[in-house]
Structure formats: C-alpha cells, structure tokens
Design the sequence.
C-alpha cells in the first residue's frame, strides 16, 4: 500500500519534500466515529471556497489531503480519502460526508488527459457503498448553476427563405411580427446557393422595393397608394422593412417621395412648401412637370394649358384656375397627392419609423440621406479600388475601361452597376474592390461578390467597345442569380 501510493504520488510529480513530510507525520489515526465533517477533504464548489483544505498551485492537477491524517498508519477501521481534481477541466467534487453519507471508498481516478490510462483504485471496507450510489448522491447536490457573469442569451437570429418571384409577399410575412426589428435577420433566396453575409440581405431589400414601387403612384418619386389587400398590419410591416433595411444594411428606396418620408418620420406638419413642391414635380411625368413649371413661371403656351388641364382633371378639378391663383392651386394639388391621399399610410408608418428619429432628427438630415444614397455614374466610379497596389499593363487598361464605363453611365445604369456589385441600387458601402483574372472565350465574364463588395473582371478585353458590349449585355439581362457560396 505504501509503495503503491508513493509511486502514484511520484507519477503525479508531487514534490519529494511533500512526500517525505507525509511519511514523517506521526499523528494517530482516528476512527470513523471520531471523524467530524470538518476533517473530511473537500473540493471547492461552484459558489463556496474551502481555503483551509486546499492551496492553489500552478499545476494543472491538484492533490488534496487532510494533513491531520496519517496516510501511512491507517488500517482496520480507519478511512483514508484522497480525491484527485482535474483543475484544468474544472471538475467539481464535493465530499459525500458533507452530505451526511459516510465515506467507504478510496478512489484514485487516473485521467487519460495526462497520458495515463483511465482507472480507479478502490479500497473497500466491510460495508461497501457502490461508486454509482455515491455519484448519484453527489450529483443531486451539485446541480448546475448559472453564473452571473456567464448568463444572458446571445442575440436571437431569425432566418427567412424568400422567393424572387414573390419577394413582397414573403418579406411582408416575415415583418408582420414587430419583434423582428430587434432580431438578427438572415435571408436567402429559394433555389439559390448564396450564404447571407449582408450581400443577400441587400439584394432581398432591393428586390422588395423594386417590386413594391411598381404598385405606387408617380414617376421619379413615388407615393404608396391605398390597396384593398393592405390593412394597418401590412402597412406597418412595410414601415418596418424600411427601417430594418436602413439600420442593418443602409438600404433605402430613394424613389419613395422625400416629402412622404419626412411626414412619416416627423409628421405632416414638418413638410414645408419647398420639400412638397420638389417631391411633387418629381412625382409628375416629364410632360406634366414641364407644364407645371411653365405655369409657375407664367410662360405657358396653348399646348401646356392642355397638359395642365389634363393634370387638374386627374386630380379632381375640371377647370384651370386664374393665373393669379395658379401657384396656390398647384400647391394644394401637391399637398393632396403627396400627403392627403396617403395619410392613412403615413399614420401606419409613424410607429415603426419613430425608431430612426435619433439618426434622422430633422427634415434636413432626411434630405441629406437621400442625397448621399443616390447613385450617379461619378459617385459609383469613385467607389472602385483595385485590391492590388501594383497592376500590370493589361490590368491597368481594363481598370481604365471600367472607370470610363461607370463614370459615363446615367442614373439608371449606375444603379444597375451598383446592384450587380453590392446587391443594392443605392450607395451602402465605402468601397468596391476590383480584382482581375485572365479568363477567355465562353468562360470570360465579370463576377461580383456582393457580400464582400468585390468585382472580379477579366483583363483580356482587346478594346473598350468590347468591354462595354459585354457589360451592357450582362446588365440588360435584368436577371441576377446568387450561386457562389
């Protein structure tokens, strides 16, 4: 017994002086009846510390024993308890005697984590309590407890699968729950392989607004119209989509009327005449816009009067006002079209859009946001940066073709280019990386990685017309499929 225990202690790298001290101790052993609960060796529980029984060491494993026990003089009726605690794995062992159960076994667990085979050396007395019974009793006292520092659930994540053919219907179903604003939303397109790392979400929001705006009134700027299939819940869901897309990904529909959005965020009273008339002119068709501008300037011709009469008739008036009353009449017409008719929708949007009042505290901040988000050829071209500092001659030539192509694009084409590269038709990234490959033939094509806002283009174009033709064909297809993981 003594030799086995000594070999065991040496195998655990117990200092020699400690072993010699244990051998030199001559304290008389005590019987079970004389042993008290305080003499039993225990380990620290999750919420209590027995400093008198253990001393922290730098070793991964700590051997604990009662210095008052004579390990070498024990015999007969005496009980020797040695517990081996794996500090590295934070296994917590509590003495059974602390729970009122007499100790009957000596167990020396040899952990395989330290390169030793797992085993148990047991010394039994006449009355044996099985290790399984002891484990059951101990586990009832060491139930898991939640630490104050480790508690708290991680931010919830909700996933949604969207069909491209019915983006509006699918996304509205997701946003009918008001709590979605506070969740992390990950989306994917059905039958497409892309994993959402912002790029897919940007594409979903952009596709939603593209389809939604088709049902709205107006031209360059549009205003939602009342629909028989939309009630308060649906309109509030649309408002949440506007807020969530802007806050999470910087995506917003710049074609949605500025005056309408200002009214939704800050109330109808915050819309002044300048904002109202600007939005109204963009709301009109080019022909109607020209007629109204000439009417306000007092330079109308006969053909303009006919166009203006058609506009007033559509707005509910069947005659032209006098010239000295033309401006107030047009302002009233603008107020009716932009604010009065969609007033119910404005009221539904007010609740979700109040969440952005801190980011957009006044009407000027809203107008500034519209200006920053709007894509133009020059702005988009300034986003492109090569991933390599040093370019070959072919790469530099191709990059020059790209800059020229994008800079000369009108707003519609600039939005297409931006959407192809980032998933969004508005500016929502600081840069777009450009890298090159040497593909030729049928495999030659530009590839966009929307999540990382990176454009990979071949550097094998022989001329700018060839470059322009290939890009025009891709953008005019109006079909983008995400199939890169």
Sequence:
């Amino acid at each position: 017994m003594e030799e086995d225990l000594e070999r065991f202690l040496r195998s655990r790298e117990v200092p020699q002086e400690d072993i010699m001290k244990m051998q030199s101790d001559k304290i008389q052993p005590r019987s079970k009846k004389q042993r008290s609960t305080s003499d039993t060796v225990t380990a620290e529980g999750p919420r209590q510390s027995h400093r008198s029984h253990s001393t922290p060491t730098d070793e991964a494993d700590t051997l604990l024993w009662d210095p008052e026990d004579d390990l070498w003089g024990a015999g007969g009726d005496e009980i020797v308890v040695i517990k081996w605690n794996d500090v590295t794995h934070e296994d917590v062992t509590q003495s059974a005697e602390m729970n009122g159960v007499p100790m009957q076994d000596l167990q020396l667990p040899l952990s395989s984590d330290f390169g030793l085979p797992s085993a148990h050396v047991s010394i039994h007395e006449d009355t044996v309590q099985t290790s399984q019974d002891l484990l059951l009793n101990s586990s009832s006292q060491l139930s898991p407890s939640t630490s104050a520092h480790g508690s708290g659930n991680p931010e919830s994540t909700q996933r949604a699968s969207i069909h491209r053919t019915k983006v509006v219907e699918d996304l509205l179903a997701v946003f009918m729950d008001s709590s979605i604003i506070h969740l992390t939303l990950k989306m994917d397109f059905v039958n497409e392989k892309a994993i959402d790392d912002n790029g897919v979400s940007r594409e979903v929001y952009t596709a939603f607004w593209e389809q939604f705006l088709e049902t709205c009134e107006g031209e360059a700027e549009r205003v939602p119209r009342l629909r028989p299939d939309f009630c308060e819940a649906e309109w509030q869901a649309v408002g949440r989509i506007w807020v969530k897309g802007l806050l999470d990904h910087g995506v917003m529909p710049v074609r949605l009327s500025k005056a309408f959005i200002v009214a939704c965020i800050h109330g109808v009273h915050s819309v002044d005449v300048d904002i109202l008339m600007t939005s109204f002119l963009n709301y009109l068709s080019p022909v109607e816009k020209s007629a109204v501008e000439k009417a306000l300037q007092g330079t109308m011709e006969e053909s303009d009067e006919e166009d203006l009469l058609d506009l007033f008739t559509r707005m509910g008036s069947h005659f032209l006002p006098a010239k000295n009353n033309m401006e107030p009449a047009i302002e009233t017409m603008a107020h009716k079209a932009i604010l009065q008719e969609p007033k119910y929708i404005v009221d539904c949007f007010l609740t979700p859009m109040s969440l952005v009042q801190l980011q957009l505290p006044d009407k000027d901040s809203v107008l500034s946001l519209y200006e920053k988000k709007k894509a133009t050829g020059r702005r988009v071209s300034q986003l492109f940066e090569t991933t390599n500092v040093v370019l070959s001659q072919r790469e530099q030539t191709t990059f020059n073709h790209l800059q020229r192509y994008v800079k000369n694009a009108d707003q519609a084409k600039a939005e297409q280019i931006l959407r192809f590269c980032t998933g969004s038709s508005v500016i929502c990234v600081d840069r777009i990386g450009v890298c090159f490959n040497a593909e030729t033939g049928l495999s030659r094509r530009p590839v966009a990685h929307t999540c990382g806002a990176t454009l990979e283009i071949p550097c094998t174009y022989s001329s700018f017309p060839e470059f322009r033709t290939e890009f025009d064909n891709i953008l005019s297809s109006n079909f983008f499929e995400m199939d890169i993981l």
